């Protein structure tokens, strides 16, 4: 297939392989090796999108990852990706892409009215307009978000998978152009472990677009030789299609490898992308440079692009960006593009701001070819609609930078611009390195480095090929040496390259236009965010002089391209507008990621069931079979309730609660945290970490304890059993087991290293079956023959060892429901057997499995707290009415804080019970409690509901609450304002049921 | 991401560790004897310097040992790693 703008020969595309693709519903042909951008240009398509704010027609501006304009919606369905840069999307058979930011179609876009109304939308427009009235924002926001936004995120689940790689190396080389390859080759020769990565599908960097020779051969021959050599080596890893996106502390870099995005039919086994996490001893930064645009009026029409990009499209992709081009420049580099295009048969006119652009080798060569050069002239504007049609050119007065002569119109179908090159210092800056301003060349270059890194080649501001090869080699050797690897034998030499003499550029940050106030024309600085030179000037006039303010006020550099091509122009314009020097204005901080990264790559395999570990008890399958509804408690799956046929949640919970009170319930309590504590100083440890005393607890007895942090606030509770003089088993809450163990370890290691005590997590070593209810003793009696279960021999708060259902067991007589209750621990692998035995033997008692919700109701009826629900890190034991669990004599963690003025002051929030006036009214947890509900907020809040349930045993709703001065207010009636109604509640004691504890003994 | 040299395991990624705040803050032996201000000083007040900082780290997803680190809070350079109970190493701030 031939396409109109494809050259007859040359380029790195495969002309034998035609590829069909679709853009905005139209079919086109490209070739293997094309990007979406080069294929569109080969078909003569420049107009590919509309701008963000003014919806102006925009074309392809660059040939690399810095592209601000040509953002497309790439792919279909759940694989669609917004804001893909057409300049880096590799063409594959059947590729589908669409323009963004245009509705209903690219050609007839409604949002273009913004362009006509642009005088009404200055910088800071949103801040100025939508600040009033304040509540209006929520209405405005919807409309603004609809009109704004770039592409569309996929709605379904990501069908692809992603991997993460962790890699280590001596030398990481970022960038595989002449400098990077030279560095990698030199470092590899020393035996250092080297990783070299490049954004593109093949190595070569700028050489892919070059006509230069290295060692008398085409430059890409040298590249192929070096890549072959590196690929042979076992100490080198080569990564293409891999963008280094972040440079973090201690030489930790993150890169994204696009593994299958370029394939029409990716194999199933390959991840779509890989996220590389590389820890490098030394880093060589060789990412090259990014060309900066010229800021002239209407510099954004489709067909206006960077000169270097046009050269790339010609030499690398075999595409002419136009038939008749005007090259606008202030430096030598654009002459190379002009010369190559001229050689390809394109009519070229060069417009150079400099008065005497002679002396450099590139201009000389262009003159030699007979190319028209207008020196001391500038392109001051453009004409055209969906494609540039003409350039307006005028002589520029050298001093005042005003238009000096008459304005000429040059018919053309492309304008190529070059305002010089900015070293790509993004990663260097991310690494904490300081940028230095090179006044001579008007560029920011890497200054003082903060990490084990060095920049080389164009990334260091050394733009010539000779420098790239020699400096790259030196940087590679130096990096390897700093990583401890030295080359034996002679020093390798850089290949010979013909030197190119260049003369300095002449900055002209804003090219004067026909309208001196810039009202009718737009001089675009940031193309992606539609920021103009006038916007920067406005920011300066309004006092937004700091570079950080400039950025946020005008949004310059805040697009997905992060202002790669616009930043320096914006800084320079701000400097001019505020009468300062460019380095005085400074740069904003460069932040990761260098290019957009998909969430999929960041998540990697940590999705679905691998997002977080799921912990299941040994009895989990039984619960599933019984139809339990599960609740997540930390990482654990716990049965919430067990609905029977047709039963709703409340009915199931009511049934379970009644069964426990009336006969017998069974609960899987395996998730409770269990810490085995051994050693002669175990009691000392317990005395420190619990608020109550542990000296007198005998073997075989259990005690409830509260734990506080040093601030005196409760953070865990549970029962600890003394198994032997120097052996204890501590129970923690389900969700807190790991943090309690960590906290104890911290104190043992840092404060009491001399205590002879050892703590081991045994949560998962034991399964726990809790049987509770009036028939619990009878059931246990049937299953256990070697423990005397009489109340005298086995009193409440005791532990016994024996056999239950033939299994070795520890039986704890403790209770979280207020009923006679046994917690039976067996080895985890026996948990299901014990459960089944209990269910079988319990059948005659109507044994009823109950879940966490019934457990919560039962404990709330008894006023037992749940740490983390009835407490929130601001609650002391005293606030909970649990002063009985606080030792007055010994010291413990948090004790001194209980005596602090604020903690000991009266009027703190205290735990109380609440009874609603209407028995069936169940308060929402978290509801606020007030003295008297007012018509509308704010109203003084006295506290809030922490737990709330319907109690079937009382036939009444019950709630626990933290209320200011609550215990003194018991008996009072307060109000709970809710969205639809106000509830009146009476404050009560938090114990609602069996206050005497008569039921504990069955 | 910092690379932290655990004194027991060697250099490991920061994500294996937990941060424990300023080091060398001993729990007062007789807490009851302290007035509120002195107790608050122990409980709440930390130095938060710009530069040299002695701090505790915990190899939580490794050997679970606590240890001390001297770190520059500006550059994140780790200047020394030493075990709990060992004396603060003699490093002058800005002396590197």
From TrEMBL, chain A:
Gene: gcvT_2
Keywords from the UniProt entry: Methyltransferase, Oxidoreductase, Transferase
UniProt keyword Oxidoreductase, yes or no: yes
Family statement drawn from the similarity comment of this UniProt entry: Belongs to the GcvT family.
GO biological process: methylation; tetrahydrofolate metabolic process
Domain Aminomethyltransferase C-terminal: 909-994
Enzyme Commission number: 2.1.2.10
Keyword Transferase found: yes
Domain SoxA A3: 521-605
Molecular function via GO: aminomethyltransferase activity; methyltransferase activity; sarcosine oxidase activity
Record domain FAD/NAD(P)-binding: where: 170-443
Entry-linked InterPro entries: 2Fe-2S-bd_N (IPR042204), BFD-like_2Fe2S-bd_dom_sf (IPR041854), FAD/NAD-bd_sf (IPR036188), FAD/NAD-binding_dom (IPR023753), GcvT/YgfZ/DmdA (IPR028896), GcvT/YgfZ_C (IPR029043), GcvT_C (IPR013977), GCVT_N (IPR006222)
Protein name from the UniProt record: Aminomethyltransferase
Domain GCVT N-terminal: start-end pairs: 619-890
From TrEMBL, chain B:
Superkingdom assignment: Bacteria
One BP annotation, GO: tetrahydrofolate metabolic process
InterPro entries: SoxD, SoxD_sf
One Gene Ontology molecular-function label: sarcosine oxidase activity
Pfam family, one: SoxD
Protein's name according to its UniProt entry: Sarcosine oxidase, delta subunit family
């Amino acid at each position: 297939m031939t396409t109109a703008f494809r050259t007859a020969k040359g380029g790195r595309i495969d002309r034998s392989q035609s590829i069909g693709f679709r853009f905005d519903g139209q079919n086109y042909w490209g070739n293997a090796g094309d990007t979406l951008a080069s294929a569109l240009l080969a078909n003569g398509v420049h107009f590919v999108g509309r701008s963000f704010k003014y919806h102006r027609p925009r074309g392809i501006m660059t040939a690399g990852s810095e592209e601000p304009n040509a953002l497309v919606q790439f792919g279909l369905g759940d694989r669609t990706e917004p804001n893909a840069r057409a300049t880096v999307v590799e063409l594959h058979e059947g590729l589908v892409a669409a323009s963004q930011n245009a509705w209903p179609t690219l050609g007839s876009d409604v949002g273009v009215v913004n362009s006509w109304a642009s005088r009404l939308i200055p910088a800071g427009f949103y801040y100025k307009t939508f600040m009033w009235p304040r509540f209006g924002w929520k209405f405005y926001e919807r409309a603004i978000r609809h009109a704004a936004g770039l592409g569309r995120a996929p709605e379904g689940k990501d069908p692809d998978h992603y991997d993460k790689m962790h890699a280590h190396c001596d030398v990481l080389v970022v960038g595989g152009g002449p400098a990077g390859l030279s560095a990698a080759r030199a470092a590899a020769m020393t035996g250092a472990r080297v990783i070299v990565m490049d954004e593109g599908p093949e190595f070569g960097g700028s050489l892919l677009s070059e006509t230069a020779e290295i060692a008398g051969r085409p430059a890409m021959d040298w590249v192929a030789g070096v890549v072959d050599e590196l690929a042979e080596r076992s100490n080198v890893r080569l990564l293409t299609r891999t963008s280094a996106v972040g440079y973090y502390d201690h030489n930790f870099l993150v890169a994204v490898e696009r593994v299958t995005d370029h394939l029409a039919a990716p194999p199933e086994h390959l991840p779509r992308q890989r996220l590389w996490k590389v820890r490098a001893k030394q880093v060589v930064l060789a990412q090259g440079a990014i060309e900066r645009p010229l800021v002239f009026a209407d510099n954004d029409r489709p067909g206006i692009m960077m000169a270097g990009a046009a050269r790339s499209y010609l030499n690398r992709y075999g595409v002419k960006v136009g038939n008749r081009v005007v090259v606008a420049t202030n430096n030598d580099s654009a002459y190379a593009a002009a010369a190559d295009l001229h050689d390809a048969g394109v009519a070229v006119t060069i417009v150079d701001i400099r008065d005497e652009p002679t002396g450099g080798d590139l201009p000389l060569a262009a003159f030699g070819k007979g190319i028209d050069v207008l020196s001391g002239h500038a392109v001051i504007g453009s004409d055209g609609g969906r494609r540039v049609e003409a350039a307006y050119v005028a002589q520029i007065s050298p001093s005042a930078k005003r238009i000096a002569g008459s304005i000429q119109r040059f018919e053309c179908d492309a304008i190529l611009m070059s305002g010089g090159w900015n070293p790509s210092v993004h990663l260097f800056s991310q690494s904490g390195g300081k940028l230095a301003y090179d006044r001579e060349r008007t560029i920011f270059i890497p200054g003082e480095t903060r990490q084990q890194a060095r920049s080389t080649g164009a990334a260091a501001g050394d733009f010539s090929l000779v420098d790239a090869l020699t400096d790259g080699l030196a940087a590679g050797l130096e990096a390897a040496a700093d990583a401890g690897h030295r080359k034996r034998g002679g020093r390798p030499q850089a290949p010979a390259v013909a030197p190119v003499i260049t003369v300095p550029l002449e900055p002209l940050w804003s090219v004067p236009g026909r309208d001196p106030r810039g009202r009718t024309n737009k001089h675009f600085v940031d193309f992606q965010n539609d920021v103009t030179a006038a916007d920067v000037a406005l920011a300066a006039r309004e006092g937004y002089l700091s570079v950080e303010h400039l950025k946020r006020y005008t949004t310059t550099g805040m697009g997905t391209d992060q202002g790669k091509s616009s930043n320096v122009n914006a800084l320079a314009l701000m400097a001019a507008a505020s009468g300062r020097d460019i380095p005085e204005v400074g740069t904003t901080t460069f932040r990761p990621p260098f290019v957009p990264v998909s969430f999929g790559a960041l998540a990697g395999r940590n999705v679905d069931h691998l997002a977080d570990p799921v912990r299941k008890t040994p009895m989990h399958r039984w619960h599933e079979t019984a139809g339990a509804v599960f609740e997540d408690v930390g990482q654990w799956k716990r049965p919430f309730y067990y609905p029977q046929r047709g039963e709703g949640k409340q009915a199931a919970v009511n049934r379970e609660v009644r069964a426990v009170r009336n006969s017998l319930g069974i609960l899987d309590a395996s998730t409770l945290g269990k810490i085995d504590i051994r050693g002669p100083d175990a009691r000392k440890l317990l005395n420190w970490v619990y608020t109550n005393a542990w000296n007198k607890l005998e073997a075989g007895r259990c005690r409830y304890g509260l734990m506080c942090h040093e601030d005196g606030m409760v953070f865990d509770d549970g029962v600890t059993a003394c198994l032997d003089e120097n052996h204890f088993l501590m129970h923690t809450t389900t969700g807190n087991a790991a943090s309690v163990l960590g906290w104890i370890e911290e104190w043992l290691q840092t404060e009491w290293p001399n205590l002879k005590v050892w703590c081991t997590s045994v949560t998962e070593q034991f399964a726990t079956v809790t049987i509770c209810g009036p028939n619990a003793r009878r059931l246990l009696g049937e299953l256990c023959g070697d423990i005397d279960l009489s109340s005298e021999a086995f009193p409440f708060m005791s532990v016994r060892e024996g056999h239950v259902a033939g299994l070795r067991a520890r039986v704890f007589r403790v209770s979280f429901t207020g009923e006679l209750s046994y917690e039976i621990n067996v080895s985890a692998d026996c948990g299901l057997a014990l459960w089944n035995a209990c269910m079988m033997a319990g059948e005659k008692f109507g044994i009823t499995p109950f879940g966490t919700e019934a457990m919560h109701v039962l404990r709330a009826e008894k006023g037992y707290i749940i740490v983390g629900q009835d407490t929130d890190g601001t609650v002391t034991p005293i606030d909970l009415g649990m002063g009985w669990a606080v030792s007055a004599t010994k010291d413990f963690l948090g004790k001194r804080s209980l005596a602090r003025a604020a903690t000991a002051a009266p009027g703190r929030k205290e735990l109380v019970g609440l009874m609603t006036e209407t028995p069936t009214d169940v308060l929402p947890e978290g509801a606020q409690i007030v003295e008297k509900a007012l018509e509308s907020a704010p109203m003084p809040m006295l506290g809030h509901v922490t737990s709330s349930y319907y109690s079937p045993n009382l036939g009444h709703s019950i709630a626990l609450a933290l209320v200011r001065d609550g215990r003194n207010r018991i008996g009072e009636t307060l109000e709970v304002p809710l969205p639809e109604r106000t509830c009146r509640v009476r404050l009560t004691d938090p114990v609602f049921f069996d206050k005497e504890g008569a039921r504990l003994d069955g | 991401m910092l690379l932290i040299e655990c004194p027991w395991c060697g250099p490991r990624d920061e994500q294996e560790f937990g941060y424990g705040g300023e080091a060398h803050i001993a729990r007062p032996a007789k807490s009851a004897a302290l007035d509120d201000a002195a107790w608050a000083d122990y409980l709440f007040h930390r130095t938060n310097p710009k530069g040299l900082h002695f701090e505790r780290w915990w190899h939580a997803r490794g050997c679970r040992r606590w240890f001390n680190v001297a770190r520059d809070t500006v550059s994140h350079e780790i200047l020394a790693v030493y075990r709990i109970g060992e004396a603060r190493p003699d490093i002058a701030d800005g002396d590197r």
